[in-house]
Amino acid sequence: MTSAATQAQAAAAPIDSVIPAPVSVTAVPNANYTVTSSTQIRAAAGATGVADLLAGVLRRSTGFALPVSQSTGDGISLQLSGADPQVGTEGYQLDVSTTGVLIKAATVAGLFNGTQTLRHLLPAKIESSTVQSGPWTVPGARILDYPRFAYRGAMLDVARHFFTPDIVKRYIDEIALYKVNYLHLHLADDQGWRIVIDSWPRLATVGGSTQVGGGAGGFYTKAQYSDIVSYAAARNITVIPEIDMPGHTNAALASYAELNCNGVAPPLYTGTDVGFSSFCVSKAVTYQFIDDVVRELAAITPGPYIHIGGDEAQSTSDADYKTFMNKVLPIVTKYGKQAIGWHEVAKVNPPTSVTPQFWGTGRSDSAVASAAGRGNKILMSPANKAYLDMKYTSSTPIGQDWAGKIEVKTGYDWNPGAYVTNVGEAAVRGVEGPLWTETVKTRQDIEFLAFPRLPGLAELGWSPWSKHNWDAYKQRLAAQGPRWQAMGVNFYRSTQVSWP
Ligand code: IFG
After folding, report:
1. Closest ligand 1 atom, CA of 387?
2. Which of 312, 380, 389, 400 has most ligand 1 atoms within 8 Å of its beta carbon, as the pocket-test mutant?
3. In terms of C-beta distances under 8 Å and separation of at least 24 residues, what long-range contacts does 16-19 make, across chains too?
4. Each residue's pLDDT tens digit, 418-456
């Protein structure tokens, strides 16, 4: 980086570099605030957790003490009163003046989102894990902001390749910076079962013992899962566990012979085919098993959703699929959770509490449109727009391309509120970027595929459609490059973006 560019980086980040784009941003002249060694961070009662997280980021790179107190006054102030009611439950107001930055919200979630915007307003070096030279200037601004959709999600497939809790937590740190508020963990598939279920212990010890390519695999203990849940919750992210069924179940079937219709456990599977497995719909033990699994998962999942998969059930007849889902969906409700399923679940006319997750490559699906018409909310993950495991271009070293290549602009230029025929804005729960890991082995691989595309999905989920503009967005995206460099994020330098 040239010294001029370094100087540019050290200057206050332009107020139009925030992703997701806020609802309204007004520059205020002569109102810059500079964080100094005497800056204090003040928080309303109940908001000191958010203040501590912000302080952690700022202390690391500024070297300042930045004490946090339950108080009001100059400096960085996080308050739970006085916010414009427009901000709702996740929005905030952020006002910069020469004496400090005041963030107001109705909830702790809103304050957390406001602190992410503050990070974007500070120079990129604020994200460094070592002390950097300032000045740490925040440009004078008035911001009022709140999300378009309630659900902005990222999915990580930890079944094809297992990822340690630390790697999952790093991904949580990265997606939190873009106000993503759901992390969907794909915990079970043909190649692996990744969560301990006490009543069926072989699921982890056998089903979790390998992965695609035959590696050692792994699994989360309940304590590790709960630690990930808490880590996410502190960053306004709700974890959604997925146990895919009736298909994508070889790991479970290999762990317990009695779950198979013929009473014989198939071998563990380390390939990448799909559609060859199915739970035995006709056996009562199948539903006892699922009841045990959902009960134990619900008990360690404070969030409202459990994902039951339902995709690619090519070895389950339509009639059996319907029978299966009509027995399983009530089990999720019984344990106080709402079900999400891949959009095939729409064909069983599920209760309106069920969220079909659209992953098609087309613009229409009659069952999904009918479900939306009945009142089901649809989660938008069109595979040719939102699948983060798709290659960027034909020369991308990892990833797949069955849904098409997804360069940054392709992943950004679509409207979730008007994408699937007869699934309008009011029927959309939000947007999610699935990252399947057949070809993804390391933290660097995850980051290479997720960045820069996930921030575009986060913006589609958060920002007003009126703010949607590729030419403006790609400038804001370019400003993320130095931030990701400071964070050590292994992002793809798309040639569509003029990285500084
Ligand atoms: N489809 C499968 C996934 C994964 C994916 C890879 C869904 C819902 C292809 N199902 O996407 O298990 O293999 O891109």
Report:
1. 14
2. 312
3. 16/472, 16/475, 16/476, 17/120, 17/121, 17/475, 17/476, 17/479, 17/480, 18/117, 18/120, 18/121, 18/143, 18/476, 19/120, 19/178, 19/455, 19/458, 19/459, 19/473, 19/476, 19/477, 19/480
4. 999 999 999 999 999 999 999 999 999 999 999 999 999
